[in-house]
Amino acid sequence: MRVVWQILAVVAISALGAQGVQAVRDEPWLSLALGALTTVLAVLVYRWVVARTEHRPVTELDPKGAAPALGRGTLIGVVMFGMVVTNLATSGEYEVHGLGSPTGAVGLFGFMAAAAVTEELLFRGVLFRIVEEYLGTWIALALTSLLFGAAHLPNPDATVWGAFAIAVEAGGMLAAAYVATRSLWVPIGVHFGWNFAAGGIFSTVVSGNDTEQGLLDSTTSGNEWLTGGDFGPEEASTRCSSVCC
């Protein structure tokens, strides 16, 4: 029953937070505030429900060292997506026209933070951790990565390839970050850094979602094999990786 209670708790906070942020998406400062509130509540609820159902210290969300771990993870995520954009720019598929919307970036900061925290708590904190306990690391990595990719299929303009790309490049990578550190702070940071860089900084499509313009006024166009089309660069990055390898 512990997995049921933990999933219900995290999903409830995620749903409430998503509804709140969506309702004020045209108010960037309110989006930031609600996103921050959702992240704090999600962490507190996760710590509470895990401690109550497993009767142990919640070491995977130990506040000690949280800030540097989040910082490292965020930097990794931003740099990784920056490399994707660099590849697009050098191929003539991405062009910056000037400054976009700093306030839009503020709102996306809150939205992406809430999404990164709640998704990592659910997929790596609850599902991966418990499946690994029973079936081992490799099976848990494969199963939860596929589930993470499948969870993006309802997104606008989603494709099976796009879901597979997210399963490989995000689900597998984020689970590996948790295995390497046994802390959720690093995968949360990587997840946030990637998504915020994609939408909040470079103003590209994030997993098919039509978000507000970010910091840069930019255009992504051209060969969908490279750009990912309407779903965004996440779909294309796995194609490119497979070709390069």
From TrEMBL:
A GO term, aspect molecular function: endopeptidase activity
Pfam family, one: Rce1-like
InterPro entries per record: Rce1/LyrA-like_dom (IPR003675)
TM stretches of this protein: 28-49, 69-90, 102-123, 135-153, 159-180
Domain CAAX prenyl protease 2/Lysostaphin resistance protein A-like positions: 106-196
Keywords: Membrane, Transmembrane, Transmembrane helix
Biological process, per Gene Ontology: CAAX-box protein maturation
Protein name: Type II CAAX endopeptidase family protein
Organism expressing this protein natively: Streptomyces haneummycinicus
Upper classification of the organism: Bacteria, Bacillati, Actinomycetota, Actinomycetes, Kitasatosporales
